[in-house]
Structures are given as structure tokens and as C-alpha cells.
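Bump. Still looking for TrkH family potassium uptake protein C-alpha cells.
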Amino acid sequence: MAQTLRRFGRAARELATASPSRFAILVFSTLILIFTALLSLPMAAADGRPLPFADALFTAVSTICVTGLSTVAMATTWSPFGNAVIYLGVNVGAMGVLTLASILGLVISKRLGLRAKLIAAGDSNPMRAHGGPVNEGQTVRLGEVGQLLATVALSTLVIEAVLAVLLYPAMLASGVHPLTALWESLYYSAMSFTNTGFTPNVGGVAAFADNYFFLTVLMAGVFLGSIGFPVIYTLWKHHFHVRRWSLHAKLTLITTTTLFIAGAAVFLLLEYNNPKTLGSMEAWDTTFQAFFLSAMTRSGGFAVVDVGELHGSSLVVGSMLMFVGGGSASTAGGIKVTTLAVLALAVFSEARGRQSVEAFGRRIPSDVQRVALSVVAWGSTIVAISTITIAQITQADIAEVLFDVISGFGTVGLSTGLTAELPDPAVYVLAATIFMGRVGTVTLAAAVAATSRSQHYSLPVERPIVG
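Sorry for the wait, here they are.
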């Protein structure tokens, strides 16, 4: 038995260092199966009856992939044990399985070897996932991986603790019982920082629609979770010395802030006359809720207004924001804000006739641009196939299907109400979409591709006509 375990351990280490992407998919899949089994237990359900397999699997996927979509009523379905399992699952999924594996190895062995650094590097930068050499400068170098891991663990614990402390009195002010508020504040803090969006109470966030302090704390938690651990590490290391910030941190913060403000302005413009959403509110309430909706479409998943009542134009805008998502190596999903920033800079450089793509005195190499383009192409393909499949299965309105599919791919958690009504075949399709969105298109492509090979020759050049 011991020899078998040692062989399994050696095989896992070889897979982790040879192909971190395949190792990540393997561990993610294993965690989903474990949590599916836990959520299928009678003790996990409030009524003591085992949950149907499709619902247990979908909830496990949504938990580990920090998505927030659900086929069941989260507030009434789960027992205290079930809620504890979900709370643990979102924190495990938020850290990233490669990072978590490295942290556990560091705790056990008291040191971080090269193997563990290579494993963790796959989470800090998806471009390392192919297992081959990475020649360009990285956001987090191998020598800094140990400090990044400490930042991941400490920031998760500290930020969630601070959020819970702030949320507790806000919940008391809204009339929540002190004991109930104690565990719900911890639950909400985890769901905001991990960008999951599950709610433990009947009515969800809408029950706190008038408690702007509570909603502001949730937005702060979502923002901190969505910018990514490398950015948190940069801010912790260099504070307000902006010149020392990495290019990744600058692009992430600028693009995130721009999309947050622009999204709020567009929602305000499109929904101010909709009596079912923002149109029935006062001017200040309408403005605040527009910002809240903009923040949550980035990956937060909480909703005060009924998403199903938004205008079709707003659903399109929300889908665009969800598709972009948050920062790389964060608890958010989507194609990532840096992907959008790199492509926007490439388009701008092409329009200006520049030979290279530059930002803040740095040149962005061509391989990064190719990866950004690949991420968009893979993401669009996954969303399109999933939308067509689910639309064919359900014959539902295509706008609602597209919104929920992008919400799943971007691990956002907002829904028009369609997800809760999906038949089992569509549930499995959406679960696969969530999994691919969380694992990441770069990691997924690297796992499918063969091991990197050096090419010692180049073919003749011929330019096809494009555009």
C-alpha cells in the first residue's frame, strides 16, 4: 500500500511539473467529485433527503469554480453541514488548486522547492501552463513565488475577516438576529471576496437593498477579489509607489476602474426609465444601484434588482462585462481585463502604424498578444457552442440563454432565472461551461496540446489578404 502511494505521489509530481495545466484540470475535477459526494449526503440537505445527482454536481462545480449559479434555492436547500461544505469549497476554489497545493506543501515541508515553485507559477501566470520555457519578464518571478503564496493565504484570511467584521453590524442594523448575523457575515464575506455570489438568506442581497453600507462592503470585497493576487502582492510590496508597479498591475487597475465606471453609466442610461428595475428609485438610489450592478456583472454575482426584468440592451451590456470578467490569477472569471487591455493596445498601435505594442514605457511582446487573441477566440467558441446546445435543448429565449451561459463561463452567478429551470442535460452542459471558464482557456488549450517542441527552422513567408 505504502509503495503504491509513493508511486502515485511520484506520478503526480511528474505530471505537475511536466504539465501544470493537466495537473490543474485533474485536481479541479477531483475536488468537484469529492464535493459532489459531500453535497449528495442526506446530512447536507435541510430536509435530510439526498439531493438529485445533477443538482449536487452543478452546485459542486459552481462552488469549486466560485461561480454562484444554482439550480436549487441556496437559502432553504442546505443544512448547516451543507453550508459549511460550500463555504470551504469556495475558499479552496478561490485560491486556485495549484496555489493551494503549494501552500500545503510549504506548510508540511517548511520549504518551497523548485517543483513547488513551478506548480504555483502556473496559477500566478497562465502563460507558464504549457510547461515550456517562458523567456519574457513575468509579473511574479520564481524567486518571488514564496512571497506570493504567503500573500494569497494571508490576504484571503485577513480580507475575509475584515469584511465579516464590517458586515456584522450592518446586518444587525437591518434587523438580522445576532447569532444569524454572526455566521451570515462570514458567509457573505467569503462569497464577496471569492466573487461567488451565493446568499444564505431568503431574498438574498435584495433584503439589504436600502443598507448602502452593507452593499458598499460587498462591492469592496468583490473588487479586491477580482483584481487578482499578483496585483494584491504588488500593492502590498510597493504600496503607492506607482512607478514600481508592474505593467500587469497598472493595466488591471486601470481597465477594472474604467469598466466599472463605464458600465454604471451605461446601465444608468439604459435602465433609468425601467420601472421594474432602476426607474422606480430616487436619483441617488438609481445611481448607486447602477454602480452596484456594474460591479456585480464583473464577477460578483449579487443582485438587488431582478436581472430577468432588465431591458434586452442592458442584458447585452451585462453579457459584455461578464465576458471580460476580472483580473488574471484572481477569484474572478472571464477572458480577464488584461486580455482586453492588450488587445485594445494592439488595435491602437496598429491604427497609429507603430511596429510594437507599448504601454507605460514597456513593450508587450508578440507572444502575449497571441495568447490574448487565443483566449478571446477560445472563450467565444465555448460560449457559442454552449449557447446553441442549451437553446436547442430548452427552446428558451436566446437572449436569456446567452446571458446565463456567459454568466457561467465568466463565473459570475447572475441569472435571468433560466438556470433554475434547466433540464438535466442542459445542466450538464452549463456545468461544463463553468468548468472551462474557471480553468481558463489558456490552461485548457495547453492541457489538450502536446508537450512544447523546439522548432529549428522557419517556413517561407506568404501574406494572405485579411480585413
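Confidence is low (pLDDT under 50) at residues 101-124, 126-138.

Edit: fixed formatting.
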